[in-house]
Amino acid sequence: MDNNNYNNYNDNGYDNGSYNGGYNGGGYNNGGYNNGDVPGKGAATASMVLGIIAVVLWFFGYSSIISVILGIIGLILAGNAKKAGYNGGIRTAGFVLSLIGLIGGALFFVACIACVGVLGAAGAFY
User: I want to staple 54 with a disulfide (CB 3.0 to 4.6 A). Which of 62, 66, 67, 126 is the partner?
Assistant: First the structure.
C-alpha cells in the first residue's frame, strides 16, 4: 500500500491520516534542537568544570588567585546559561562550585598574603 493510501485509510471510524507515521520519523524532535544541542548547556558545563578547577586550586597557595579568576568566569558562564534558558542541574552545580571557588580562593589568597606579611614582619625584628 503506498503512502497516500495509508494516510487516507479509515479503519473502524478512526482517522489514521492525522497520525502520519509517528513523531518525525519515529523519534521526538527535541524541540527543534538537533542531537540534543540545548542552548546554554555548553556554558553550564564549562561553568561546572571551571568551578571544580577553582575549588581544587585553593590548596596550592598563590594559585588561589587563579581560583578567584576562574570562579568569576564560571559565575558569568552560569549566568549566560540561565539567560539562554538552560536551568539544569549542571548549571546549578557550576554556579555553586564557581561561587565556592571564588569565595574560598579569595580567603586562601588573603590568608597566604597575611602569612607572608607576618613572616616578613617577624624577620625584620630579629
Answer: 67
